[in-house]
TrEMBL record, chains A, B:
GO MF terms, alphabetically ordered: glycosyltransferase activity; nicotinate phosphoribosyltransferase activity
Record lineage: Bacteria, Bacillati, Actinomycetota, Actinomycetes, Micrococcales
Catalyses which reaction(s): 5-phospho-alpha-D-ribose 1-diphosphate + nicotinate + ATP + H2O = nicotinate beta-D-ribonucleotide + ADP + phosphate + diphosphate
Entry-linked SUPFAM superfamilies: Nicotinate/Quinolinate PRTase C-terminal domain-like (SSF51690), Nicotinate/Quinolinate PRTase N-terminal domain-like (SSF54675)
Homology family: Belongs to the NAPRTase family.
Annotated organism of origin: Gryllotalpicola protaetiae
Protein's recorded name: Nicotinate phosphoribosyltransferase
Pfam families to which the protein is assigned, alphabetical: NAPRTase_N
Length: 433, 433
């Protein structure tokens, strides 16, 4: 987590910088806004994630010799622009939704205020982080709700890019997952890690019983034994024979789970292992989890569907210039006008309206170039970075813990229809006023 | 690209290691195999990617103080296991499909031969890299075919995790993409980069004409102007007035492209700009590209659908123990037996059968524990890493260039039905013999 992030950037940002330095517009005070035009796949709400990671990555957005030498060799920008990049450090202000906050179409999730040159080159990094992490958190939140209080662990690292996997774990934890298999996420973000054994461990040994004896010897009877390498019923019998009825848990990673889980519970109970937990991990998503709600499952492990956003692997957020100062010092809102991708210009102040019971009723976005209004609702913007300095409460493992707490509160405000799994309209309307 | 990759690992790999060190099975010579049970989404073939990256990441799979201290504090493994990890360096042999090779269900894409302890802890890293990169390369290959010789550039970094984006660019280039917007991919992997300006650049200026003048002044008349910020027809008129008929290109990022492109070509031609190219970049995937085949498009830019694998963001490969030596020194094949996830035990040697015209006819996988057979087809395995040392021809920018060349050859061997975009059976049957 120490390298430069400066070239995690699309080339056009540097060519725009180059031209704006030449024509003088680079210095115009500008407002860039991150928002999603719609929620993916008919989802009812989105969950903002990645913010804390992003603040740290912006601090590492510096052009060192390796970056500058390559840009020079490739003639990407002029010598003057290279000098400017060598001194680059973001000095602007970033406000936005707290990490863990829920969002809706048009919600101004992040606002970057800086001279054009400073803000324009952050586009790709900002979007990469927020689009992936928010897609994962949004999917994770649906799974957490489907699990209805049962613990749910993230085990999808093998189905995501190796670095993305760590970010996915972090996003899932913010959205309410209880733990992860990913050790780096444990080390860097303070997320509880879990895991005991794969089929390879059983297959390595001459018999399943030898494998179980070895695992219990190393990890104690509180461990979870994977019982489906050969035959599940025999595996369970062997597991209890080896570990006794105090065995912590059994894991099922194959088969027709709604049928199988009931049988396994009955067999465990008959063997006296009434406290032995059942964890299931076979290609689960929010729908499969919901389908197991009546089964005696104790915990879930989710892999592929989590790290790929369960059908929506990118949140679809965009980073748009929405206002800038003219040479006369006047703020003007700006927006693309042509077909299909129109957006709302101007700096925005979003308020979540709540009814008397505290349930959210609308996302009201005030379009301003100056000051926020007073309102009955909950103000959604916080200052994440002021004059280039990140607010320490949002970064690191502490930021993750805070985001997880905030997510739980924001989710609690949502109306019940927000939690339907089927495709539909956003749970709140976004009103621009 | 210098940090340790050792904790990009699921916890259960270290707990299996721990138990196997305690019971002595850790030293059993083992064969782990990477394969996909099926191709995603009814695809006709897959493209292997990530191999060169993986070899470098395995070289960085070392446990330093930061990793060991955290594992100790979290009580993940015993003190004895920590000592073993401190000395860990992979010393085994890895054979596999060349990067860029095409693959089918059951193709043994990568084979890791090492003592159990050395191989088991690489599972997550191996799968993370191959699953993501191969998913992207597989999607990219379909887009390249749909583009039918027109250049196609990768522009999706903003819709992928920031590190995954660099890997996606690399995978797309191997599968035949011509360039990328991602600067880090240019620096690290030698991939050509491209890009000129976004809507923000036009919106920053007081008029579209001022923006175009600035861009042409900085980048010359050979640049590509984005003409759809306000009104496309006016934008084109302005573009040619500013740059003259020698303008390099115009970019369209919105609208109903099949209709729009023809109009734009006619307008450019009428203005004398017959050599000005048209590049389109509006939410393209392989189907949208195919739908534009009769339109006068000169080049494509693809974003979201590329970096998310166009509906299949993970290739679904698994890493399985398929054989190990017993204490008596005998190789035995092993495989999970229970429902739904059965696999074929034993070390494998894959051969691609070709007919007399050089067209591939079958993927024949010989299941062996000893030596490969002689055969009429093309042998698919190469040695990627011997005794822990990566073959230098597969890594770095040189490895990427070689993989791109190899991909073109492997694609050329495929029968015509491999290139249908609709869902269907794999283009080749995989036969285990």
């Amino acid at each position: 987590m120490t390298g430069s992030t400066a070239l995690l950037t699309d080339r056009y940002e540097l060519t725009m910088l180059d031209a704006s330095l030449a024509d003088g517009t680079y210095a115009r005070e500008s407002v860039f806004e991150v928002f999603g035009r719609r929620l993916p796949l008919g989802r009812r709400y989105g969950v903002v994630a990645g913010t804390g990671r992003l603040l740290e990555l912006i601090n590492r957005f510096r052009f060192g010799d390796a970056e500058l030498d390559w840009l020079r060799a490739e003639h990407v920008v002029s010598a003057h622009t290279l000098d400017w990049l060598a001194d680059y450090r973001f000095t602007g202000t970033i406000t936005g939704y707290r990490e863990g906050e829920v969002y809706f179409p048009g919600s101004p999730i992040l606002t970057v205020e800086a001279p054009f040159a400073e803000g324009v080159i952050l586009e790709t990094l900002v979007l990469s982080v927020l689009n992936y992490d928010s897609a994962i958190a949004t999917a994770a939140s649906r799974m957490v709700h489907a699990a209805a209080g049962r613990p749910i662990a993230e085990m999808g690292s093998r189905r995501a890019n190796e670095d993305a996997a760590v970010a996915a774990t972090r996003a899932a934890f913010i959205a309410g997952f209880s733990a992860s298999s990913n050790l780096e996420a444990g080390r860097v973000w303070g997320i509880p890690t879990m895991g005991t054994a794969a089929h390879a461990f059983t297959l390595l040994h001459d018999t399943e019983e030898e494998a179980f004896r070895s695992q219990v010897a190393a990890m104690g009877v509180g461990t979870t034994l994977l019982v489906d390498t050969y035959d599940v019923a025999e595996g369970i019998e062997t597991a209890i024979r080896v570990a006794g009825p105090e065995l912590g848990g059994v894991r099922l990673d194959s088969g027709d789970l709604p049928k199988l889980v009931g049988k396994v519970r009955a067999q465990l109970d008959a063997l006296g292992a009434t406290g032995t937990k059942i964890t299931v991990t076979n290609d689960l998503d929010e729908y499969a989890i919901a389908a197991l709600s009546a089964s005696p499952v104790d915990s879930y492990g989710v892999g592929t569907s989590l790290v790929t956003g369960s059908g929506a692997p990118a949140a679809g957020m965009v980073y748009k210039l929405v206002a800038h100062k003219t040479d006369e010092g006047e703020w003007i809102p700006v927006a693309k006008k042509s077909d299909g991708k129109a957006s709302v210009g101007g700096r925005k102040v979003p308020i979540r309206h709540l009814d008397s019971s505290g349930t959210a009723t609308a996302e009201v976005v005030h379009v301003l170039t100056t000051r926020p209004p007073r309102d009955a609702g909950r103000e959604l913007l916080v200052t994440l970075m002021a004059d280039g300095e990140a607010d320490a409460s949002f970064v690191g493992a502490g930021g993750v813990a805070a985001a997880r707490l905030h997510n739980a509160k924001a989710i609690d405000e949502l109306p019940e229809e927000a939690f339907r799994l089927g495709a539909g309209d956003p749970a709140l309307h976004t009103l621009f006023v």
